[in-house]
Amino acid sequence: QNEEKWDFVLVSDIHEMGSEKEIKRKKFLDELSKKGFTIKKIEDTKLFYGVRAPQHIFWKYQCLLTNPNSRQRNSSAYQDVPVTTRIRVVHFILQNTVTSDLEKLHDLMKKKVFEAAFPLHKKEEIREILKKKWARWRVLFKEQPIEEIRCYFGEKVALYFAWLGWYTYLLIFAALAGVATMAAGATVFSSSQVSKEICDANNTIMCPLCDQNCSFWVLSDTCTYAKITHVIDNEATVLFAIFMAIWATVFLELWKRERAKVATSWDLYGWDEEEEELALQLINNSQHEPRLYQHSYLRSTIVLILALLMILVLIGIAHALVIYRAVATALFTQSEVSLLSQYADIIAVTTGAVLHYLTIVIMTKVRSHTACLAGFLQKPRTFSQRENNFTVKIFLFQFFTNFSSLIYIAFFLGRISGHPGHYVRIAGHWRLEECHPSGCITDLFIQMAVIMVLKQTISNVMEYLIPLISHQLRKKKKHPKKRSLMLGEEEEAEDPCKRQWLSNYELNEVNVFSLFNEYLEIVIQYSFTTIFVAAFPLAPLLALINNVIEIHLDAIKMMRLRRRMVPRKAKDIGIWLQVLEAIGILAVIGNGLVIAITSDFIPVQVYKYMYSPCTRKNHTSMDCSTGYINNSLSVFHIRDFEPHTKVLPEFKGEHIKEYRDYRNADDYTYTVQFWHIFAARLAFLILFEHVALCVKLIAAWYIPDVPQKVKNKILTEKHSNLRNGLRWVMPWKCQG
């Protein structure tokens, strides 16, 4: 029975005898045979080669490394290495075996000599446990079997699911806080004086929203929009933003503690990735010389230039979306369809958000090729370095793709559009958008809601359906040939390995970056959940719902729809931790800017304490924000419209109309109040960020990265090992 246990399967097309591909394949298999590998060939529509490594390779591995799974070893007795270790060692040797033509497996797969190489999903007890307790929808709200995941997929995959589970658990608290903030906005702050004044402003005539065939409008028309805005933009939002800054820190600090417990229980503290890679190189080739670290300033400069060019492309895409919104707003406003003209702003924002989502999808396809090119130029020494470089570049690329449009809406929309009589125009024709009288925060809310909902629903559906459909199609392709083989070659068809190898081959392909894509998806989601969360308090709730589904979706894909991933060892989540910490700092800055710049929180507070009726008399019964809307509007003389402006219907009578800004009526320069608000925004931003960052630092200091229990366990182990070592030291040697 042991003879039928195979570590890896290589798949090849059936090539003509004597052809170049057949010769290359034979040379590679001969190299494996020289190393003592057992090879079994099965022929179907493809050629399948089962590969099993000799036992002495694993003995060498145990000798060279202090294997956490076999610490108590000696020269005469070896424990069996775990299946995950076997697969990892065999995979390394397969990838680094060189033929007489100086070609490796990677080169041969590029030349179509081999089509695939994969370890097998086998019918073993642990796989059945995972299928029952993890890879099914019925166990949606049950704890993940992390230890079993580790034993089947290795430490790297297990750590990903442990981290994702921990993140999802802590999202419950963030989601509750977000829902409470929205509920407070809808109840406690629903009777807002600001929105009440907008709803009652029946006589406040506003400047037209476009230049051609647009009419003046009454401020009270936007009553509903004002009420929705105040549900998001209120005092509770400031507290929620500070809470989320603390939550992000506590999440990472608690994860570090959780990781320390996991790494200790899996005995990974003494494991070194570089040492393992060197050991595997020596097992594969005892004459191997290590590749030394190198750094080229020229290559780094080229990579930097490439990165800057890509960022410029993404900024260009953001500009294109700005142009679309400006043109769409103008066209929808002038539309004869009353629904389009009435809700021109909202429709332009929503369709702009959908277009932004489509650019994210398209640029995601482009990103990997660019990052691979940059990685090739840098030539990292180890796979870990290569992965880290790839991670940083891809994350930056995705971050700018996802957030460029949001940054424009949050910090530039309505602030660079000019004023009536002197608008900033695109190509001298289309006016840039203006903020709603209630502020721009609702635009940001809509943009984030559309992107998050589309991104999570569509990506999850596609993530599941594409592998499922692909798997079904591959199975259908095989069935007719199977029947003919059973008729013509019954003995071969009855080979117990054949069905297993075929069923594994029919599954979807995986690669070394399959897990990377899962990490990237969740880290980008974490960015949405933290960076602009002040504008979209429901982000943690959407993330929580998505993650509960995502965990089991990933489990089903890995267990039922994809080939087995090559298990990799790891003692943490790698560079992703630094990325998450950077996002935590950006979250403090981003939310501070949203409250200071995007929100109307600061202008309202300045009005209350400097310009409201409360500053002149002691009005205990009056809301101090009374009169804020009228105070925040500036007057404009119709005679100062640009010559080509055409207003419908033709206006007669009054010569003054209003717009949202703080400008003087005579020369349209900024008022003193504008500069007071500007100073208050700046002061709030500095204060908010310093307080939030101090709280983050205190939280990081207060919660130790490694629990005392783990530290004491490591200390006790070190002491015990040293004491055991002391017993072997001869007394005369010490005396000498």
UniProtKB/TrEMBL annotation:
Highest taxon listed in the record's lineage: Eukaryota
Domain Anoctamin dimerisation: 84-146
Domain Anoctamin transmembrane residue range list: 149-715
Keyword set includes Methyltransferase: no
Topology of the protein relative to the lipid bilayer: Multi-pass membrane protein
Subcellular location: Cell membrane; Membrane
Any GO CC annotation of this UniProt entry: plasma membrane
Residue ranges crossing the lipid bilayer per the database entry: 157-184, 236-255, 301-323, 343-363, 394-413, 523-553, 573-597, 678-703
Protein family per UniProt: Belongs to the anoctamin family.
Protein name as catalogued: Anoctamin
Keywords: Cell membrane, Glycoprotein, Membrane, Transmembrane, Transmembrane helix
One Pfam family from the record: Anoct_dimer
InterPro entries referenced in this protein's UniProt entry, alphabetically: Anoct_dimer (IPR032394), Anoctamin (IPR007632), Anoctamin_TM (IPR049452)
Record GO terms (molecular function): chloride channel activity; protein dimerization activity
